[in-house]
């Protein structure tokens, strides 16, 4: 009997050890997958609102999916949640940065960061804007019914998974604008790619912000930063309205010392415009504006500029070339979500651009999580892994030797891509994510580190 008890205890202990070992191996594998999900597909794209052209095709694909696939998707989400909890227990991976915060870096004008000035609060705007973002329903009503509805209730409950050090701020607050400029400069970022809608227009959850541009330009100039424009897909955007709006921007802001101009290989200094969701408009319409022979051509006029299109699918590269664009960027911070945002495709995209005299501007990001506004989108979360995800993206970008690197984003809090300072916060039943074990400035410090690395490596490329 004694021997039997001993053997039973031994078997029990062995099973427990084996189970813990298997869980450990699973955690490591999931961590590696999160860092570089190279072969990941679209799944249910988080960008339903971001990728309107793809929505119809996605719905058709979803209708073809069998119910077992849906069950599998749910289990993947469950594993992702377990993995997120496991990764958060990992030890710090980013070495401490000893540079004093007050010692601001010199701006690197080849580092561009996407910036949003759409936030508001009662003190400056009479109400909360964007912090009270609604919960977006899934496009499949059956799935949508399983998730909460309504909108967020600031200042304790905001439409973000992280919480800003500056609180639920207003983008009109001069102290906030100045704090942002200081943070960007400390990160050695040189160019602000400002989200822009024409006067009187805004995104569906915001208010017009064009009247804020002069203030942003003034503060940018104070810190030797430059401002370029990230033109959003406003209503009825076509060749004619784009000509009118580019003319408006250059006439109104082009003389400001903070207005960004890029010096081309031919010696010309031209404004630059990122064009979000450019693929929604057919190449023939863009060609009217962007080719020399186009009926609405902007080429060889005082309003000529560099126009950078968003590449999502591989086929878009040919459309971009036919349209007359000067380059492409990838925007999304979710490696594996789209063809363009997948790091392993950047080398072939850069080669295509080099062959066709286009600029390739990869977009790197620190991670992705948008479940505060899209609660059904767990599987597109990319854990930050204490900064490793961000560094992996920078490393992939440097490998292809781009002229410019764009960063998604400075403060897109809804999608958890921000590098702005965030702080731990717990309120009621809400526990926000944070940058621990690092300090709030860790992603600014990592950006500064890679900005310097980029500068040094670029010197070698040019030799």
UniProtKB/TrEMBL annotation:
Key words, A-Z: Golgi apparatus, Hydrolase, Membrane, Signal-anchor, Transmembrane, Transmembrane helix
Principal EC category: hydrolase
Gene Ontology CC terms: Golgi membrane
Stretch forming the signal peptide: none
A Pfam family the protein falls into: Glyco_hydro_99
Membrane topology of the entry: Single-pass type II membrane protein
Protein name per the record: Glycoprotein endo-alpha-1,2-mannosidase
Organism: Penelope pileata
